[in-house]
Amino acid sequence: MSTGWSREEMAARAALDIPDGSYVNLGIGIPELVTRFVPEGREFIYHTENGMLGMGPPPADADRDLDLMNAGKKYVTAVPGAAYFHHADSFSMIRGGHIDVCVLGTMQVASNGDIANWSTGAPDAIPAVGGAMDLVQGVKHIYVITQHTTRTGEPKLVERCSYPLTGPGVVSRIFTDLAVVDVTDNGFQVVELAPGVTFAEVESKTGAPILPPA
Amino acid sequence: MSTGWSREEMAARAALDIPDGSYVNLGIGIPELVTRFVPEGREFIYHTENGMLGMGPPPADADRDLDLMNAGKKYVTAVPGAAYFHHADSFSMIRGGHIDVCVLGTMQVASNGDIANWSTGAPDAIPAVGGAMDLVQGVKHIYVITQHTTRTGEPKLVERCSYPLTGPGVVSRIFTDLAVVDVTDNGFQVVELAPGVTFAEVESKTGAPILPPA
Amino acid sequence: MINKMYSSIPDAVADIPDGATVMVGGFGASGSPIELIHALIDQGARNLTVINNNTGNGDVGLAALIGNGQVSKMICSFPRSSQSRVFPRLYKEGRIELELVPQGTLAERIRAAGAGIPAFYTPTTVGTVLAEGKESREFEGRTYVMEPWLKADFALIKCEVADPLGNLTYNKTARNFSPLMCMAATTTIVQTKKRVAAGEIDPEHVITPGIFVNRIVEVPDPVHEDTLIAEGRSYP
Amino acid sequence: MINKMYSSIPDAVADIPDGATVMVGGFGASGSPIELIHALIDQGARNLTVINNNTGNGDVGLAALIGNGQVSKMICSFPRSSQSRVFPRLYKEGRIELELVPQGTLAERIRAAGAGIPAFYTPTTVGTVLAEGKESREFEGRTYVMEPWLKADFALIKCEVADPLGNLTYNKTARNFSPLMCMAATTTIVQTKKRVAAGEIDPEHVITPGIFVNRIVEVPDPVHEDTLIAEGRSYP
Questions:
Q1: Total domain count, chain B
Q2: Is B154 in the active site?
Q3: Distances (CA, A) of D55 to A189, B171, C210
Q4: pTM of the model
Q5: Catalytic residue among B49, B159, B192, B203
Q6: Number of domains in chain C
Q7: Given CB atoms, is B100 within the 8 Å cutoff of chain D?
């Protein structure tokens, strides 16, 4: 077992790559941790698909407003300068290319930037897509935070996704517990290794050709 | 010269055919007079394309707000219960079939319901269409108020419009100084003659076959 | 004076017929018009096509309507969530149809219906199984799919403040799909927490202009789906 | 802290290059960002394509920009009005191009650009000369024409209240095209009558969320086109 980055460290590393003043949409899971690691001197404005810019942290139970939820249906707060709007306006922000960065979890991501994070394609599964396909097509930069492999050790960074795609060729950067990996014209390219992790380990746990750090 | 209806009487007659509670858009000219003749016990809500429902009468000069205009760029007021909105929402009301009645002036109207009221088609004219083509395609009922003939005595109710169309087959009822005329599957049909006006006179001043009152 | 107020919830939903297409406002629990949905359960219309982002939670509200066998088809983006049991069961038994529509496309299709736009192009779903059977086309070197408008016979909507003309405001993220659904339904039925006189809502602050609203009932203390579920309630 | 405020009007428009496409908010005189337009006259960019409902009035604002020879093409719905003289003269002399777009189609094309919708279908212009050259198509037995989105490099916008994040409100019918243009331009430049701190605009009352705004200058006492014309003014 390598050392590598913890969930929190992955989120913190991703936050480092988000410029000051960015409009950011965060997926459910590890991506939500990004809010805890905004680098000193930077400010991000969080968008939630259900109709809000300026989403703040969860409220204390006593302060929660049953009409103030995020896209994951969790209770949230509003920061000063927030705005509410309806769903068509919210997805105009997404589809129209106004959101700068979206950080998503995933089941698989391929070396051509394909992402599969909405369905296993199992015949008895109930398909549920939400806003995932809108986000990957509309947001300027699609970042992924994910463990490098599944719990059973299968690579999540693959040559071709075996699960149904959320969108083709959309991911630009991947933050795993082992490395930061770019999707380039030449496929996966490690840009940074986690402390104590070797390129050989990353390569062995990646299901596609991957280039070492330059 | 026949007696016939005055401009005010034409507007009052048109107002009689607008049901209580209607959302109404009025064109420039005689149609604007409709607001003065709302029948007792009825209430109309006026829509103006530039972004307002609940348009009220012109203000006294001292009370005018330079940011409160109608589509004809005249200063207006807002009634209690008014709402402001942007142009895409305003034309959603029009195109989406939410406005009940639009009363327009015209240059020509044909017996198949075609209307031509935006351009003479003269080669040196500067074309200007505004919202006319949106209105005639979107509003549920298109009424026309017009003199029966031009100043030089040419019929304005014609078999085919010679001017460029605003929209094809859209007009349902016409209020002239001489008669109320419906556009039917059988062409023009007089439904009411102005006091002192004979059907023969109407027929002689109409540029298309026209049926007498039933 | 124009007055769209109804004094009785049952009266407001009485004429929804079997086979109707019904939009239901709300995103998850926020903005869900529980009282109107429960009145529709009491009323009993069947074979409904329901449009909502989700499929309800627990055994109240939309989930209860589905559980009561009144819905033959759901059009939604996310039919399962942590507390949705009713739809998954019926779906696996083959007793309810599902049209899965991505969330942004769902919102835009509803808006298009209200705006008189029969179809539009979107990049969403391109290159995925959800684009299968859709017409695609290139604009400026990128591929898009064509999506049709989505209309309804009725919309059931929850708002915060309403006046008798039908001007509405909402509370926070309870707004979500509701202003769009008001535009897209032939008959829009609204439950409001608070009723005010015409003119009391600042014309600058109106979110849904009255032209999109047909009927309003005042429900001063609406129940909230999350509260009902926490209390273990079911309906009827 | 995010702060989109500029202290100088010239700085806010300094980088608009020759050949740019510029949306200008306003419907006739209401909502016209006269100070920003005059700064663009001072700045001198030429060969501009300008998108506005009209073509300006008198010899100030948009009409003055056109009169100064900076505009090679207008995209608008109504290029003449009682007080517009500059555009008609240049048009008749063949010195300015005109793309005539019906008002509702103009609004929807601008919104489409902001919403990532490359094209949509509308019934407007069907059966008229303005449909010539457009692709048409039937939906549910009715004919519609296809219209493309309409983008811009810059938008010049006048608003009533702004905060440093770019959240905006407007005054009455001065709202018109402005919220749509904010969405559709790569760089949106706003003049505001009043500046407030973030949080002072109620999140329920924001008309243009800050994500659509790039630069804001405070112009506490903006001139109004109608007043300038009544005073017989011209610019520069």
A1: 1
A2: no
A3: 53, 30, 33
A4: 0.98
A5: B49
A6: 1
A7: no
